[in-house]
Amino acid sequence: MNDVTRRFTLVGAVIPGALTVLAVVVQVALLPQLPNPSAVHWGLDGVDGSGPAWTYPVITAFMGALLPVWLWLSARPRMRSGARGWSFRFLAAFALGIAVFGAVAMTWAVAMQAGLDSWTDAPSVVPALAVGAVLGIVAGLGGYAGQPKTVTVYQELPQAHVEISAGERVVWLGVAKAGKGTVAVIIVAVALLLGGAVAGWLTQEYPVMWLMLALAVLIAALGLMMLEADVRVDATGIQVRGPAGWPRSSVALGQVASATAIEVEALGSFGGWGWRRVPGAMGVILRSGEALRVERREGHALVVTVDGAATAAAVLTALAERAEA
Amino acid sequence: MLLRIDTASDQPLFAQVAAAVRAAISQGEARPGDRLPPAREVAQGLGVNVHTVLRAYQDLRDEGLVDLRRGRGAVVTDAADSIAQLRRDIAELGKRATALGMAPATVVALVRASL
């Protein structure tokens, strides 16, 4: 295994994973000494909520292990087969920061309650959170600095070839579509917010109702942008447009340096889904998988996840070559 | 969906657009239930009038290949599957006719007579 992947694995999975396991073990060992129920919630005036003590190790495990497990299972295989990108480095550092914050803050909150008679005696949780946050940020920055700077490298897919003669006019039209998971998440989020708005209306909490309604509209609008984008390749170049014609991004034919079909990992290469700007590229990333990558002569690339990317790339390449001739 | 027309051809543009869509369907680029690209998009991409594309879509509807529905655009019908099934036979026929030096008009006339 090469150095980039080894350090990525160390920062993003091994260290946060080990820290989380250690924190959970320490917390579980302390559980018998905690008041039952234990303090689990603090307000402005100090402790104000109680719950079972096992909440702490469970939350610690979720916070600390979720991202490392995902990075290990999904991102690491891609890196081993050659994918490189800014997001891999960032996500690994982020995983480490979150794990350190969770381990420190949660273990502190458990340790400070050891030997207390009642949850109401629990001291303020602010020092635990503050120290945890500072250490988490330091660990995140250290984890980022501890990984080598890499240029983005995508896995290329088999390329196609299209012949276009002098008198021909050609258009390639495609629709980039979101995965089923994304659609489900958006629908559930909007439904929950609308449910919250109805609850606010029924309980006459009108500010809550308006807030929930506004959030539902915002999420629905943002979600719509993440569902579909039209892709058109023709003699003018390539144009990608969201629903209702916005947002849009394009590369003029004369600006096309190369067009290729690549494999994209949404979270690993672009840090998530949607219309995203990362160093060196603008991505219309509605799902993981097959994508069209158009490199500009100036260097900034446009990447869009669309079925039939190989054909689209071949058409764009042929058009650009014909315009040059 | 890849659509191509040839400005040097004698065939009218609408017929070429219709033929391009048929070719795309026969290659499985559009399946029953899929929507054809909006006529405006095709027209802009090919640099032709939008009515030319609409005329082509109407011809495809008359053939039973697509349904034209208000608000939903042109939707590919189940007939697309039949085309996809015949695709290999048609390609084979074209290849043999070319090898035998037959004029395209003759082949078309013979095929039409056999139906």
Helix and strand arrangement:
The complex is a heterodimer of chains A (325) and B (115).
Chain A: H1 3-30, E1 38-43, E2 46-51, H2 55-80, H3 86-111, H4 126-145, E3 155-156, E4 168-177, H5 180-202, H6 206-227, E5 228-234, E6 237-241, E7 248-252, E8 256-264, H7 266-270, E9 274-278, E10 281-285, E11 289-296, E12 301-304, H8 309-324
Parallel strand pairs in A: 10-12
Antiparallel strand pairs in A: 1-2, 3-8, 4-5, 5-6, 6-7, 8-11, 9-10, 11-12
Chain B: E1 2-6, H1 13-26, H2 39-46, H3 50-62, E2 66-69, E3 73-76, H4 79-99, H5 104-114
Antiparallel strand pairs in B: 2-3
Helix pairs in contact in B: 1-3, 2-3
Summarize the structure.
The complex is a heterodimer of chains A (325) and B (115). Chain A is 51% helix and 22% strand. Chain A is an alpha+beta fold.
What does this protein structure show overall?
The complex is a heterodimer of chains A (325) and B (115). Chain A has two domains: 3-145; 172-177 and 227-324, PH-domain like. With 325 residues, chain A is an alpha+beta fold. In chain A, a hairpin with a 6-residue loop joins strand 6 and strand 7 (248-252). The model of chain A has no long low-confidence stretch (mean pLDDT 89). Chain A has eight helices and twelve strands. Chain B has helices spanning 13-26, 39-46, 50-62, 79-99, 104-114, and strands at 2-6, 66-69, 73-76. Chain B has a domain at 13-85: Winged helix-like DNA-binding domain superfamily/Winged helix DNA-binding domain (Arc Repressor Mutant, subunit A). The model of chain B has no long low-confidence stretch (mean pLDDT 90). Classes of the chains: A alpha+beta (325), B mainly alpha (115). Chain A binds chain B through residues 162, 164-165, 167-174, 230, 232-235, 308, 311, 315, and chain B through 1-9, 29, 37, 41-42, 44-48. Strand 4 (168-177) of chain A pairs antiparallel with strand 1 of chain B.
